[in-house]
Specification:
seven-stranded parallel sheet, alpha/beta, 33% helix
Length: 161
């Protein structure tokens, strides 16, 4: 599966707490034509530890857990090394002083977006290993959007789906 704009795009979901957020991200990833999702840390997977489909996951993913390729990898560092070796541009989506507006991200090759924990976000270490840090400018009093909403805004804005 590839994006409508024929660019390969991947997601890395690191330490996402919520099963519902993760399921919703799968659904958005399917709509945006994401090639594969990498689940790292304690991010919930569509399958429980006994190999059974998770009903709470499928409730929000609505079948996208079947249509979108995914893989669980405990260590985010190992997947970052693998993707960099494959010359895939790594974009961390996080509020940071060194972040650029997500609207300025231009895809020239394969790309992977990293999204992190709903409360803590992504660590400085992960940001340092990324090629770019991007953020959505907030105009209201709230400092951030829900992670699943953020994924939708970024994917549809950057991938021009």
């Amino acid at each position: 599966m590839s994006c409508i704009n024929k660019k390969e795009a991947y997601l890395i979901l690191h330490n996402i707490r919520s099963v519902e957020n993760t399921g919703a991200i799968f659904r958005t990833a399917d709509a945006a034509g994401i090639s594969k999702i990498y689940l790292t840390g304690y991010t919930p997977t569509p399958i429980d530890r006994f190999g059974r489909k998770r009903k709470d996951f499928t409730k929000t993913a609505l079948g996208a857990e079947v249509s979108v390729k995914w893989e669980y990898i405990n260590s985010i560092n190992s997947i970052l090394k693998k993707l960099k070796k494959e010359k895939i541009k790594i974009v961390a989506v996080e509020q940071s002083k060194k972040a650029v507006d997500y609207k300025k991200i231009k895809i020239k090759s394969k790309i992977a977006f990293i999204f992190g924990n709903e409360v803590k976000g992504l660590s400085k270490s992960i940001l340092d290993k990324s090629d770019t840090v991007a953020q959505i400018q907030m105009l209201g009093k709230k400092e951030s959007l829900n992670v699943s909403v953020t994924v939708g805004v970024v994917l549809f804005g950057v991938l021009n789906v």
